[in-house]
User: Fold these one by one.
Assistant:
Number 1:
Amino acid sequence: MRKYMICFMVCMVVCLVISGIVFAQDDIKKHQSCKYCGMDRDKFAHSRIFIEYDYGTTEGTCSLRCAAIDFAVNIDKEPKTIWVGDYNTKNLIDAEKAFWVIGGSRSGVMTKRAKWAFLNEEDAKEFVKEYGGKSATFDEAIKASYEDMYQDTKMVRKMRKLKGMIKHNP
């Protein structure tokens, strides 16, 4: 009996992993690039956000910063579920249940002050030990995104100008 229980548990874990991979691929297929900055969401799978709004609409962004823009622009849409890429596995996890780290020495995506999500608290603590930063909740991470918005927008604009992506008309 114990053998069957172990076999059943292993099968359940495999099914969950496979369904998570399929779901992750579907969100990237549906929203290949971030509509706010144009970044490739597959390349930034470790920081991407996938939002399921009420009434069945969805949005995919490259980062929490761009998701914050989407929340502000779509003030009348209620997010039903917010998914984020786990920093280590790149699998989508519930952003509100994730263990977040704000700051640290690792460069953030579209932000000077990074915001990373982890499925496990141990992974978040390990990251803080290696790169610094502080543990946070989703509410603290999204608040930090709004606080950083002005400086991050200036930084992105400057980087794009340096790369020749912005052409000014006289």
Number 2:
Amino acid sequence: MVMDPLKKYLHDHSRQRDPVLEWLERKTRYRCVHPRMLAGEPLGALMTMLVKMIRPRNILEIGTFTGYSAICMGRGLSPEGRIDTIEIFDEYNDLILEAFKRSGMEKQISLHTGNALDVIPGLQENGYVCQMAYIDGNKREYCDYYRAVKQVLEPGGYIIADNVLWDGKVVDPKHKDAQTEGLRAYNKLVLKDPEVSMVLLPLGDGLSICRKDGPASDSPTD
């Protein structure tokens, strides 16, 4: 894969060499039909940094792919921190679990196979809460993911969503496909939500970061 010189510079200067992530990038390019779905750098290094800044006890990820972003977030976790990552397809489970094992974080990262909209309510029924969530699943369902995640996100927690600019399609009215419309709806939903503060960044394919400022949506109000 030939990389744009500026992207290569960003990639090479965002993180010190991590043999596990380098191995996973190679395996992803070799095995996967759409290897560009892998987070890569500098997003991976940013995710590590955000985890170190936010210091979450629990992280919820929607869209594992081959596990790169989960490992990056895991690199920033405290020893008692945990990640629950959800992937709807099981075809790369062997690669994901091997990557987690190679990273030394197989006990801190739990892989759930299934639709996130089915998995999250099950976690919630068992009292699950998180302080950070990363959304990188089906673009058509981003709004549904957001609403589900807010139910388990503690006040003061953060939701990070990737691909929210979608190669610039969100600003081009001629693109009306379901994925683009889903992302437009997501960006509008987060912007208009009075319970959060947010910022939209042109990093990679677009990164949305929002903080849940208001009370938990299922909490009573005075």
